[in-house]
Amino acid sequence: QVQLVESGGGLVQPGGSLRLSCAASGPIFSIHAMGWYRQAPGKQRELVASITSNNSTNYAGDVKGRFTISRDTAKRTVYLQMNNLKPEDTAVYYCNADLTYYKGTSFREYDYWGQGTQVTVSS
Question: Shortest CA distance to 79 belongs to which of 115, 50, 121, 47?
Fold first, then answer.
């Protein structure tokens, strides 16, 4: 059973920093890309940042220069360093992984999601 487990959310004051982590586990053959999405109350889930297997990154416009995504391939973990946080960054942050996993003698590709971690930016 493939799982994504997130950690690192919490309450922080405007201008503060948080680091989110997401570790993938289970019968994984390869991870093609990982990313972070967020969903604020009453809004659709949106991409925050993503990183591919060759470390190509992509960021939403409003987080460029403040957030940094990185990955540790050996640990199957993706990180999101969030600096200069703003109240509008408040949301539930979800980890996503596009990966290939083993199923018996075959391989299958699937898009997995973590359970989400709350980030609240408030004074």
Answer: 50
Q: What is the pLDDT of residues 10-58, one digit of tens each?
A: 999 999 999 999 999 999 999 999 999 999 999 999 999 999 999 999 9
The CA distance from 49 to 63, in Å, is: 8
What string of DSSP letters covers the chain? Answer: --EEEEE--EEE-TT--EEEEEEEESSEEEEEEEEEEEE-TTS--EEEEEEETT--EEE-TTTTTTEEEEEETTTTEEEEEE-S--GGG-EEEEEEEEEEEEETTEEEEEEEE---EEEEE--
